């Protein structure tokens, strides 16, 4: 075993592990690179340490300083770990949408975790990014890591991830399949591998279906870390400069359900407990591998471990609540999905007269519910619940001059597989008469009226 003089020296140097059972029947070799073997538990330790060291060397971060980042978790964890070891204060701005395990880990390293939940575009003063930037401007000695636009992020992977993969495959790698969040991992690793192989290594971006990187509508997804979300009120879709999309030969798109099923299956058939974005990457790698012969060697970095998501992707209640589990109740009871009603969708910014005509032509009754959504160009799949602004009816629309004037609030989200009766459904029915959103695979596929949720109906 090697000997290290500090925890920070253990960042990097992760192995390659061949998929055997999960890749049975496929001709190429598929190797995964378990980045959770980094000390903070994710691939982002590499970027965090690289950005922090560069800030120190450039004088942007000095002894007694404060390390600040806005993050979906893992970069903050890497920074918090390094800051703890090096004696810096760490202040991490993140959203409560990240898993409980990641928030707890940040706090365990002594970082101050500031939760910002406002659903606003990046440029808005209440956005995560604005909070971080304001805090840095107001705090002497504070440095914002800014992983999305920090060249030290991809540089970490050019210096370590790429060379490790090349050396551990003895130069045999033919395909790199990786997710794209900030783009640091794929850009730095791909640049190295393309250079060293004279362009031979093919680079495939594994992207959540709705991510705008691969042409999705930019709406939210349930997989943390991978892909690019665009707030519906953003006028611009600015991609991070950490991403060099010219290095990506093509994308493979994977939806949340398949990503989650892939990590459950990896855990159960291969004994590899990986996080959600790893599910996107492995599912994409299997699709790539299907078209390759025995000379193929596919390498897939797995950004973090399933242990970060035991309360989400591996938790039956979470899976059921978000429509990722059970389409038939084992007891034979009816389910929320069976009682759901399909629902017409209306853009919040549509002309009210156009909406009324459309709904009338569609045979919608005056009191039937329609869901009002943020406008989103190129919507290609059922909406994510965060794109739902509220509900309305034809009768309300007829009496209003804009769609926004006709809005009513909606009740909770209920997973399609929830059996009836269920405590969460009973609580909602007892609390009023709002319609509930029915989620299947994390998308809103219908609504449920309180009276339809009566199990004895
Ligand atoms: C879980 C997870 N997966 C994937 C990624 C994407 O990595 P990168 O930012 O290097 O593109 C991240 C990064 O934030 C992550 O936390």
From TrEMBL:
It comes from the Bacteria. Residues 8-304 form the Tryptophan synthase beta chain-like PALP domain. Pfam families: PALP. The keyword Protease does not apply. InterPro entries: Cys_Synth/Cystath_Beta-Synth, P-phosphate_BS, TrpB-like_PALP, TrpB-like_PALP_sf. Keywords: Pyridoxal phosphate. Coiled coil: none annotated. Its cofactor is pyridoxal 5'-phosphate. The keyword Cytoplasm does not apply. This is Cystathionine beta-synthase. The lineage of its organism: Bacteria, Bacillati, Actinomycetota, Actinomycetes, Mycobacteriales.
